[in-house]
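Section 5: illustrative case.
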């Protein structure tokens, strides 16, 4: 959803940033960077970002000074505005926020297209250069990262598409691209902000929603809910720098920052996988019912999406969509 990063700050403690001071370099040589994240400092993600800030100073011979702010109360829209005005220089975005920076990222969120992390790895290895080339001119993606998987949650068992169509599906009013997909698939959408989700579920104004599991546990929404154990689509994240700051860096420092950031992204991906698995296990012990569809039921979801694709293809980049499909077909066939 559009406000996933903003929602994280509701769920976790806000922490102050750490300033990595530079020594042995004059002020005129130092590029000062305010790096903002909505992720909690006291987490695997936060610790990885703190190490990254320190690494940027190290690999640039202290020519970059990073002030890291965790748990920011800015929404992703506000972060984007701040990047453009250069009041911050670097920020962490989810795939929802990245849509405004790189619309082609939506091709990774086609429902039920990419099925697991192994397939996502193969696809990303192939299309990252394409995504990077589609980033709007005023930004640079330092590194892409996985942000977990989106699942369908509901107040009654859902095994098939028509089970979900009978329910009132909560969705972010700001995520218009995804909403258009669901509307064309004939789902009953109810615009709902994440902060109102619990109240609307309790009053039965909505009866289903889609979200990454790590956002649900702290809100205690899982008791009495069902989760369809079939990932809807991957959620992506990215570390983005504005081009004003990027252009202040030497070519050597640009390369060094990208290299060490991509190494950190691997840590970030592993942390997210652990956190998601732990969140699902915790919710299941706390009363969440996991609905595990049969293979035939899984095939029904995918057939439903494939049958609708001719009416949806205008929402996606057709060439990139076909490229991802080709990558998946080759991978699944062992070629």
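Designed sequence:
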């Amino acid at each position: 959803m559009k406000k996933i990063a903003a929602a994280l700050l509701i769920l976790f403690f806000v922490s102050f940033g750490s300033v990595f001071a530079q020594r042995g370099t004059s002020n005129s040589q130092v590029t000062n960077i305010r790096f903002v994240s909505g992720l909690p400092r006291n987490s695997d993600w936060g610790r990885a970002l703190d190490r990254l800030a320190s690494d940027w100073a190290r690999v640039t011979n202290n020519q970059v000074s990073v002030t890291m702010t965790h748990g920011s109360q800015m929404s992703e829209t506000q972060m984007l505005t701040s990047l453009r005005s250069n009041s911050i220089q670097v920020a962490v975005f989810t795939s929802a926020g990245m849509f405004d920076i790189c619309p082609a990222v939506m091709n990774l969120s086609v429902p039920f297209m990419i099925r697991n992390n192994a397939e996502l790895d193969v696809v990303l290895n192939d299309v990252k250069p394409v995504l990077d080339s589609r980033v709007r001119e005023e930004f640079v993606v330092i590194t892409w990262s996985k942000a977990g998987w989106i699942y369908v949650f509901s107040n009654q068992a859902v095994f098939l598409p028509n089970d979900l169509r009978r329910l009132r599906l909560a969705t972010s009013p700001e995520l218009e691209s995804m909403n258009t997909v669901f509307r064309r698939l004939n789902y009953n959408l109810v615009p709902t902000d994440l902060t109102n989700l619990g109240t609307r579920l309790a009053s039965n104004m909505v009866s289903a929603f889609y979200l990454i599991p790590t956002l649900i546990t702290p809100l205690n929404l899982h008791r009495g809910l069902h989760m369809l154990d079939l990932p809807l689509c991957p959620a992506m994240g990215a570390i983005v720098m504005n081009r004003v700051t990027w252009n202040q860096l030497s070519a050597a420092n640009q390369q060094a920052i990208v290299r060490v950031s991509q190494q950190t992204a691997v840590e970030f991906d592993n942390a997210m996988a652990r956190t998601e698995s732990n969140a699902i296990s915790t919710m299941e012990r706390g009363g969440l019912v996991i609905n595990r569809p049969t293979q035939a039921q899984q095939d029904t979801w995918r057939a439903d999406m494939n049958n609708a694709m001719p009416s949806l293809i205008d929402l996606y980049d057709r060439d990139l969509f076909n490229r991802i499909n080709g990558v998946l077909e080759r991978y699944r066939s062992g070629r």
